[in-house]
Write a structure and sequence with these properties.
single chain, 6 helices, six-stranded mixed β-sheet, 16 strands
Length: 293
Protein backbone atom coordinates (compact mmCIF):
# COMPACT_ATOMS: atom_id res chain seq x y z
CA UNK A 1 0.00 0.00 0.00
CA UNK A 2 1.50 3.37 -1.06
CA UNK A 3 2.05 6.13 1.47
CA UNK A 4 0.25 9.40 0.86
CA UNK A 5 2.27 12.64 0.81
CA UNK A 6 2.02 15.42 3.38
CA UNK A 7 -0.49 18.12 2.49
CA UNK A 8 0.68 20.80 0.08
CA UNK A 9 -0.70 24.13 -1.20
CA UNK A 10 -4.00 23.70 0.63
CA UNK A 11 -4.81 20.41 -1.10
CA UNK A 12 -6.87 17.99 0.98
CA UNK A 13 -4.45 15.15 1.67
CA UNK A 14 -3.99 13.04 4.80
CA UNK A 15 -0.80 13.78 6.73
CA UNK A 16 2.03 11.26 7.03
CA UNK A 17 3.82 10.26 10.24
CA UNK A 18 5.98 13.34 9.68
CA UNK A 19 3.06 15.37 11.02
CA UNK A 20 0.63 18.00 9.70
CA UNK A 21 1.69 20.80 7.39
CA UNK A 22 3.41 23.77 9.00
CA UNK A 23 3.32 27.35 7.70
CA UNK A 24 6.12 28.01 5.20
CA UNK A 25 6.83 30.57 2.50
CA UNK A 26 5.52 29.38 -0.85
CA UNK A 27 7.27 30.62 -3.99
CA UNK A 28 5.19 30.94 -7.14
CA UNK A 29 6.82 29.73 -10.34
CA UNK A 30 5.56 29.76 -13.91
CA UNK A 31 6.25 27.98 -17.19
CA UNK A 32 5.62 29.74 -20.50
CA UNK A 33 4.35 27.76 -23.49
CA UNK A 34 4.84 29.05 -27.03
CA UNK A 35 4.64 27.97 -30.66
CA UNK A 36 7.63 29.94 -31.88
CA UNK A 37 8.27 30.82 -35.51
CA UNK A 38 11.25 31.84 -37.64
CA UNK A 39 11.26 35.56 -36.77
CA UNK A 40 13.20 36.39 -33.59
CA UNK A 41 11.55 39.78 -32.99
CA UNK A 42 8.03 38.31 -33.18
CA UNK A 43 8.97 35.51 -30.78
CA UNK A 44 10.48 37.95 -28.30
CA UNK A 45 7.31 40.05 -28.40
CA UNK A 46 5.21 36.98 -27.61
CA UNK A 47 7.59 35.93 -24.84
CA UNK A 48 7.42 39.45 -23.41
CA UNK A 49 3.63 39.31 -23.30
CA UNK A 50 3.52 35.93 -21.58
CA UNK A 51 6.25 36.78 -19.07
CA UNK A 52 4.35 39.94 -18.13
CA UNK A 53 1.22 37.84 -17.59
CA UNK A 54 3.11 35.40 -15.36
CA UNK A 55 4.65 38.24 -13.34
CA UNK A 56 1.28 39.94 -12.94
CA UNK A 57 -0.08 36.67 -11.55
CA UNK A 58 2.63 36.71 -8.88
CA UNK A 59 5.32 34.47 -10.32
CA UNK A 60 8.76 35.05 -8.81
CA UNK A 61 10.48 32.70 -11.26
CA UNK A 62 9.47 32.29 -14.91
CA UNK A 63 10.89 29.78 -17.38
CA UNK A 64 10.66 29.92 -21.18
CA UNK A 65 10.69 26.88 -23.50
CA UNK A 66 13.54 25.53 -25.60
CA UNK A 67 14.09 27.55 -28.82
CA UNK A 68 11.72 30.26 -27.57
CA UNK A 69 13.46 32.87 -29.73
CA UNK A 70 13.53 30.91 -32.99
CA UNK A 71 12.02 27.84 -34.60
CA UNK A 72 13.47 28.37 -38.07
CA UNK A 73 12.34 27.15 -41.45
CA UNK A 74 15.60 25.20 -41.63
CA UNK A 75 17.81 23.72 -38.90
CA UNK A 76 20.64 26.04 -39.96
CA UNK A 77 18.54 29.17 -39.28
CA UNK A 78 19.49 29.12 -35.61
CA UNK A 79 23.16 29.21 -36.60
CA UNK A 80 22.52 32.45 -38.51
CA UNK A 81 21.11 34.21 -35.43
CA UNK A 82 23.54 32.78 -32.85
CA UNK A 83 24.97 35.22 -30.34
CA UNK A 84 28.33 35.63 -28.68
CA UNK A 85 28.29 34.67 -25.02
CA UNK A 86 27.20 37.71 -23.00
CA UNK A 87 25.92 39.96 -25.77
CA UNK A 88 23.19 40.07 -28.36
CA UNK A 89 19.51 41.06 -28.61
CA UNK A 90 18.11 37.81 -27.20
CA UNK A 91 20.35 37.93 -24.13
CA UNK A 92 19.62 41.64 -23.69
CA UNK A 93 15.91 40.88 -23.84
CA UNK A 94 16.23 38.32 -21.06
CA UNK A 95 18.26 40.65 -18.83
CA UNK A 96 15.96 43.63 -19.38
CA UNK A 97 12.77 41.62 -18.86
CA UNK A 98 14.00 40.02 -15.64
CA UNK A 99 14.99 43.45 -14.32
CA UNK A 100 11.72 45.09 -15.42
CA UNK A 101 9.50 42.57 -13.64
CA UNK A 102 11.91 41.89 -10.76
CA UNK A 103 11.72 38.15 -11.39
CA UNK A 104 14.16 35.29 -11.83
CA UNK A 105 14.00 34.42 -15.52
CA UNK A 106 15.16 31.22 -17.21
CA UNK A 107 15.69 31.58 -20.95
CA UNK A 108 14.79 28.02 -21.98
CA UNK A 109 17.44 27.85 -24.68
CA UNK A 110 19.08 30.23 -27.11
CA UNK A 111 21.73 29.64 -29.80
CA UNK A 112 25.19 30.74 -28.65
CA UNK A 113 28.46 30.59 -30.56
CA UNK A 114 30.40 27.32 -30.50
CA UNK A 115 33.93 26.35 -31.50
CA UNK A 116 32.52 25.11 -34.81
CA UNK A 117 31.32 28.04 -36.97
CA UNK A 118 28.68 25.77 -38.53
CA UNK A 119 27.13 24.88 -35.17
CA UNK A 120 25.78 26.48 -31.98
CA UNK A 121 25.60 25.68 -28.31
CA UNK A 122 21.98 25.21 -27.26
CA UNK A 123 22.18 27.16 -24.01
CA UNK A 124 19.83 27.70 -21.07
CA UNK A 125 20.53 31.01 -19.32
CA UNK A 126 19.37 32.10 -15.86
CA UNK A 127 18.97 35.75 -14.83
CA UNK A 128 18.28 37.07 -11.35
CA UNK A 129 15.70 39.69 -10.43
CA UNK A 130 18.19 42.48 -11.13
CA UNK A 131 18.82 41.27 -14.66
CA UNK A 132 22.24 39.74 -13.95
CA UNK A 133 23.10 36.42 -15.57
CA UNK A 134 23.92 33.89 -12.89
CA UNK A 135 24.09 30.56 -14.75
CA UNK A 136 24.52 28.95 -18.17
CA UNK A 137 23.85 25.34 -19.10
CA UNK A 138 24.70 23.92 -22.52
CA UNK A 139 22.53 20.99 -23.60
CA UNK A 140 24.48 17.76 -23.17
CA UNK A 141 22.31 15.14 -24.89
CA UNK A 142 21.51 15.82 -28.55
CA UNK A 143 18.25 14.52 -30.00
CA UNK A 144 18.34 12.01 -32.81
CA UNK A 145 15.19 10.38 -34.22
CA UNK A 146 14.39 8.46 -37.38
CA UNK A 147 10.90 7.08 -37.84
CA UNK A 148 9.60 7.02 -41.38
CA UNK A 149 9.36 10.55 -42.77
CA UNK A 150 10.10 12.13 -39.38
CA UNK A 151 13.82 12.60 -38.88
CA UNK A 152 15.92 14.79 -36.58
CA UNK A 153 19.65 14.98 -35.95
CA UNK A 154 20.66 17.83 -33.62
CA UNK A 155 24.34 16.93 -33.83
CA UNK A 156 24.41 18.39 -37.34
CA UNK A 157 23.93 21.93 -36.05
CA UNK A 158 24.57 21.73 -32.28
CA UNK A 159 27.76 21.21 -30.31
CA UNK A 160 26.96 19.36 -27.08
CA UNK A 161 27.82 20.65 -23.62
CA UNK A 162 29.75 18.64 -21.07
CA UNK A 163 29.00 19.94 -17.58
CA UNK A 164 26.15 19.63 -15.09
CA UNK A 165 24.81 22.97 -13.87
CA UNK A 166 23.03 23.68 -10.60
CA UNK A 167 22.25 27.23 -9.48
CA UNK A 168 21.47 28.38 -5.95
CA UNK A 169 18.66 30.92 -5.70
CA UNK A 170 17.03 32.49 -2.63
CA UNK A 171 14.31 29.83 -2.62
CA UNK A 172 16.35 26.70 -3.27
CA UNK A 173 18.67 24.82 -5.63
CA UNK A 174 17.72 24.56 -9.29
CA UNK A 175 19.03 21.87 -11.64
CA UNK A 176 19.17 22.85 -15.31
CA UNK A 177 18.43 20.57 -18.25
CA UNK A 178 16.99 20.83 -21.77
CA UNK A 179 14.46 18.62 -23.58
CA UNK A 180 16.18 15.36 -24.66
CA UNK A 181 18.18 15.40 -21.40
CA UNK A 182 14.95 14.23 -19.80
CA UNK A 183 15.60 10.69 -21.02
CA UNK A 184 18.89 10.40 -19.11
CA UNK A 185 18.22 10.03 -15.35
CA UNK A 186 21.93 9.90 -14.55
CA UNK A 187 22.14 13.62 -15.34
CA UNK A 188 19.68 14.44 -12.57
CA UNK A 189 21.42 12.12 -10.09
CA UNK A 190 24.63 14.04 -10.82
CA UNK A 191 22.90 17.24 -9.68
CA UNK A 192 22.79 15.85 -6.12
CA UNK A 193 19.90 17.21 -4.03
CA UNK A 194 18.01 19.87 -5.97
CA UNK A 195 14.68 21.41 -5.03
CA UNK A 196 13.53 22.26 -8.53
CA UNK A 197 14.39 20.71 -11.90
CA UNK A 198 13.79 22.84 -14.98
CA UNK A 199 13.25 21.14 -18.36
CA UNK A 200 12.57 23.65 -21.17
CA UNK A 201 11.58 21.56 -24.16
CA UNK A 202 10.40 21.27 -27.76
CA UNK A 203 9.29 17.63 -27.74
CA UNK A 204 7.93 16.37 -31.03
CA UNK A 205 4.27 15.40 -31.02
CA UNK A 206 5.24 11.78 -31.79
CA UNK A 207 7.59 11.32 -28.83
CA UNK A 208 5.74 13.71 -26.55
CA UNK A 209 2.42 11.94 -26.90
CA UNK A 210 4.09 8.67 -25.92
CA UNK A 211 6.56 9.70 -23.21
CA UNK A 212 6.48 13.36 -22.10
CA UNK A 213 4.26 13.20 -19.01
CA UNK A 214 5.67 9.83 -17.91
CA UNK A 215 9.24 11.12 -18.03
CA UNK A 216 8.45 14.43 -16.31
CA UNK A 217 6.64 12.74 -13.45
CA UNK A 218 9.33 10.07 -13.14
CA UNK A 219 12.08 12.68 -12.76
CA UNK A 220 10.03 14.42 -10.05
CA UNK A 221 9.32 11.21 -8.13
CA UNK A 222 12.77 9.65 -8.27
CA UNK A 223 14.52 12.88 -7.28
CA UNK A 224 11.85 14.00 -4.79
CA UNK A 225 11.93 17.41 -6.46
CA UNK A 226 9.56 19.79 -8.19
CA UNK A 227 9.78 19.85 -11.98
CA UNK A 228 9.08 22.97 -14.04
CA UNK A 229 8.61 22.03 -17.70
CA UNK A 230 7.92 24.85 -20.20
CA UNK A 231 7.41 23.56 -23.73
CA UNK A 232 6.81 24.46 -27.33
CA UNK A 233 3.25 23.44 -28.10
CA UNK A 234 1.53 23.57 -31.45
CA UNK A 235 2.09 23.81 -35.20
CA UNK A 236 5.07 25.78 -36.47
CA UNK A 237 5.59 27.54 -39.79
CA UNK A 238 8.37 25.09 -40.65
CA UNK A 239 5.82 22.25 -40.62
CA UNK A 240 6.94 20.81 -37.31
CA UNK A 241 4.39 19.91 -34.62
CA UNK A 242 5.45 20.07 -30.99
CA UNK A 243 3.64 18.33 -28.17
CA UNK A 244 3.21 21.13 -25.63
CA UNK A 245 1.59 20.05 -22.35
CA UNK A 246 3.75 22.40 -20.30
CA UNK A 247 3.40 21.41 -16.69
CA UNK A 248 4.53 21.81 -13.11
CA UNK A 249 4.83 18.60 -11.08
CA UNK A 250 5.37 18.24 -7.35
CA UNK A 251 7.82 15.78 -5.69
CA UNK A 252 5.06 13.19 -5.27
CA UNK A 253 4.41 13.18 -9.02
CA UNK A 254 1.22 15.25 -8.82
CA UNK A 255 0.63 17.56 -11.79
CA UNK A 256 -0.13 20.95 -10.24
CA UNK A 257 -0.89 22.80 -13.47
CA UNK A 258 -0.67 22.09 -17.20
CA UNK A 259 -1.46 23.58 -20.61
CA UNK A 260 -2.08 21.04 -23.39
CA UNK A 261 -1.63 23.28 -26.46
CA UNK A 262 -1.05 26.83 -27.65
CA UNK A 263 0.54 29.91 -26.12
CA UNK A 264 -0.01 30.53 -22.43
CA UNK A 265 1.26 30.21 -18.89
CA UNK A 266 1.02 27.56 -16.17
CA UNK A 267 1.88 28.38 -12.58
CA UNK A 268 1.99 26.80 -9.13
CA UNK A 269 3.54 27.15 -5.69
CA UNK A 270 6.84 25.65 -4.61
CA UNK A 271 6.64 24.86 -0.90
CA UNK A 272 10.05 24.24 0.74
CA UNK A 273 8.47 22.96 3.97
CA UNK A 274 6.40 20.39 2.08
CA UNK A 275 9.48 19.25 0.19
CA UNK A 276 11.44 18.85 3.43
CA UNK A 277 8.67 16.86 5.13
CA UNK A 278 8.27 14.62 2.12
CA UNK A 279 11.97 13.78 2.07
CA UNK A 280 11.82 13.03 5.78
CA UNK A 281 8.81 10.75 5.34
CA UNK A 282 10.32 8.95 2.33
CA UNK A 283 14.13 9.33 2.53
CA UNK A 284 14.73 7.47 -0.73
CA UNK A 285 17.65 9.71 -1.68
CA UNK A 286 19.46 8.60 1.50
CA UNK A 287 18.66 4.94 0.81
CA UNK A 288 20.68 4.83 -2.39
CA UNK A 289 23.25 2.02 -2.40
CA UNK A 290 24.78 1.56 -5.86
CA UNK A 291 26.43 4.99 -5.94
CA UNK A 292 28.61 3.84 -3.01
CA UNK A 293 29.77 0.63 -4.66
Amino acid sequence: MSAKPPSSFGRARPSTPAGPAAPAPVVRVAAVQMASGPKVSANLNEARRLIAKAAADGAQLVALPEYFAIMGMHETDKVKVREADGKGPIQQFLADTAREHKIWLIGGSIPLESADPKKVRNSCLVYDDKGRRVARYDKIHLFGFNMGDEQYSEERTIEHGDSVQVVDVPFGRIGLSICYDLRFPELYRAMKDVDLIVVPSAFTETTGKAHWETLIRARAIENLAYVLAPAQGGYHLNGRETHGDSMIVDPWGVVLDRLPRGSGVVSAGINPAYLKRLRQSLPALKHRVLHRI
